[in-house]
Structures are given as structure tokens and as C-alpha cells.
Amino acid sequence: MNTQILFTQNSAMSWALPGWLAWLDSDHVLEDRNDDTDKKWVWHRLIPFAFLHLGCLAVVFTGWSWTAVGVAVLLYWVRMFAITGFYHRYFSHRSFKTTRLAQFFFAILGLSAIQRGPLWWAAHHREHHRVSDQAGDIHSPVQEGFWWSHMGWITRPANMVTHYSRIKDLTKFPELVFLNRFDWLVPVLYALGLFVLGAVLETFQPGLGTNGLQLLVWCGFISTVVLFHGTCTINSLCHVFGAQRYDTGDDSRNNLWLALITLGEGWHNNHHQYPGAARQGFYWWEIDMTYYGLKLLEAVGIIWDLHPVPASVYSQTFTSANTFTTSNLNPSIQVQPRLRTSKLMEPCR
Length: 349
Known about the structure:
Layout (H helix, E strand, L loop, with lengths): L3 E4 L20 E4 L15 H10 L2 H4 L3 H27 L4 E2 L1 H12 L6 H13 L10 H4 L1 H5 L23 H8 L3 H20 L7 H25 L19 H6 L6 H6 L15 H11 L3 E2 L6 H4 L1 E3 L5 E3 L7 E2 L14
């Protein structure tokens, strides 16, 4: 096996750390383009996941408190919103506009979820839409099964690379590239912050019944693990279980239960029909908490120009693999299915 350390091409920042320090930079990965482990689990890359899961077991020693559990639940929802609203709907699809400061802040918040950098996330997601459930889709349950699509794909060395050529609209921001390259920095600071907060509360508010280690276990390990698996269900389950309103050419589904645990991401078939919309619950009864949160941010001026669902999309209903009917017009009128195209993935100007 001929392996070598490769510096990711197209990186927006040309400087590199020397020697062994290069491993602190996510743009340095151990990759072998001819590796026979292609699309097979690389078990040593599960060590970080094992550490997170085993850390949850420390709850046996720390116990629980309403404070720790409450903060863990709060941070689950806040960080889920950073992933769904900004990693997904903003960085990946540019479905609204915001300030440079706001995108930096929500990138940091998303990094605290420990789902790698925003540019890595967006680059892979744009490619997912381009080849959804086809041979090139790196996390398709249709192609590779549940466990690979849920988390196995992350262990493949080639998938650790950030493809900057797919996200040129984002690489012009050096602060985002820095956060993406050193994606371990925010999680470490997040963990330290939790421990310090817990220690401060133990000292000055002992009636809350928490401490540094307890807050770290509940909010740093348990909350993060649940958040990780919640996010991954969209890859592994939302292309298998649920209803299809639109013929998108893939197996994306709408699933209420997954929408509830992911703040609206479960309306996945809707999303694959029109990825550029800021909302994924196309109708009022399709609960989309991320969209409600984005509307709140719009109301206070933090974001603006939320992309709506076009009227033409609402008029289309799934009838077969080959045709749509416009149900609110003449039912005899047929229009061709939407072709999956990379145009929907172009950055919003």
C-alpha cells in the first residue's frame, strides 16, 4: 500500500504547518487513491466516535441534575439549528443572505456540534445533490446500506478531503477556511467552556446541583452524540422510510418523525425537489422549526432574502416515475419531471 500525506488541492490558504503539526490541519489527510479499502470501514477512524460514545458512560459517575439535562437539551436544539439552518440551508444551498459576521458566528456554533468544518460539510452536500443515490453518492443507503450511509462513509480517507473547487463562493472568506482547516479547535474550546461553566455554577450556585464534569458529560458527550445520530438519520433513513410527493429521480422521502428530531430536515423529498428554498416543510402542517427560526432571524435583521418555494413546485404532485400532474390546474395537463441539475446548487448572488 503506497500512502502519502497530501495537501488538499484548491485550498484557499496556501500556508501549511511543518512536520507532525500538519496533522492538526484538516487539509492534511492520509489518503491513497488506490487504496483497496475504498468504500470499506477504516476502523481506526472510528476512534473519535468511540471516544464520544464511551464518554457518555461517565454519566454513571457524574449523575444528573435538572440543570445539566436542561442545558444539554437546549444545546442540542441550538446546535442542530446551526447545522440545519446554516451548514445546510446557508453554506450548502445559499438559500438566504446574511452578514459576514453572522456567517462566522454560526459557523463556530456549527463546529461545536463536532460535524467537521462548514466548507467540508457544504462541499460534500452539494455533490450529494448532484449524484443523489447514484454510484457517486458517498452516503447513499440505496448504494451501500444503512451503516455505511449513517457513519461508515466518514471513515473513508478520501471523504476527509474538502473539495474547495465545489465551494468557491465560500473560499473567499479566509476566516471560514481557517475554521474549516482547524475544525478541532472549536470543539476543544466548547468542552473546556462547559467544564469551566459547570465549575463556576458549582461554586457560586451550588443549589443548581451541577459541576464541571457533569456538565461536560451531559452537554459535551451525550448531547453531541444524540445530535450526531439525529443528523445522520437524514442520510441513512430519509432515503428509505417515508412518503414521496415528488419524483426527484432518487429515493428521498418525507418523514414527519425525522423532521421533528432534526428541526425540519425530514421533509427531504420536498428539499430534493427544490433545494434552493429556505423552507423544507412546504405546507403549514409540515413542521419545520428551522424555517421558523430563520424567519425570526429575518425579523430582527440578521438574515434576509429567504428564497421561497416557487408556485410551480406547489402545483406539481407525484403520479408516476415519468410524469407529474398539476393538481390545481387542469388535471389532464402533464409536465415533464424536474431534471436533477447542478444549477440549483449554484451559489446565490
